[in-house]
Amino acid sequence: METLKNQISIEFDAISENERLARVVIAAFLAGIDPTLDELEDVKTAVSEAVTNAVIHGYKENGGKVVLRASLSTDEKLTVDIIDYGVGIANVEQAMQPLFTTGVPSERSGMGFSFMEAFMDGLEVESTPREGTSVHMWKHFAKRQTTGTKPILQAAVWNRTGRE
Ligand SMILES: Nc1ncnc2c1ncn2[C@@H]1O[C@H](COP(=O)(O)OP(=O)(O)OP(=O)(O)O)[C@@H](O)[C@H]1O
Ligand SMILES: [Mg+2]
What we know:
CATH architecture: 2-Layer Sandwich
Distance between the termini: 25 Å
Largest sheet: 5 strands, antiparallel
Oligomer: single chain
Number of strands: 5
Helix content: 25-40%
Bound molecules: adenosine-5'-triphosphate, magnesium ion
CATH topology: Heat Shock Protein 90
Strand content: 25-35%
Number of helices: 5
Structural class: alpha+beta
């Protein structure tokens, strides 16, 4: 049975600098389950695509607030929600089509939602015009066998700094 192991919620300004912040936050949140570098990169990319969309499309670069929620269950399922209170999307199905963009074609390729879909196990988008957009994504991680596999020196350092 899956139960919740950890959950976070942070709110930050909708400015492009915070795309990096969101990547760092989600990476730190996942550190406890020891993801592979590929898994980590996939989740970071999906999260930064959603945050970029909130900044650029949701708030049209005029600022606002973005909420990042993440939760991890005991069966190693990660869920992430990226929420904005911006302009919203009139036609979500159309917006999620590969190559569809309302942005400047020289700057945007219309591939953000496709990346989120490809890099996560699931993606759901809810949006209401003039109220905002909520992007819900999830991914399963394989259970790792961590005991006995760490180099002894690394384990000793972790004990000393109280990290494990
Ligand atoms: N948070 C949001 N608020 C309002 N509109 C959004 C939001 N996210 C996406 N959209 C709409 O969905 C379209 C498709 O988004 P998607 O991320 O797939 O492509 P893009 O952002 O246009 O280009 P790319 O991500 O490749 O730079 C956007 O052009 C925009 O019209
Ligand atoms: Mg995008």
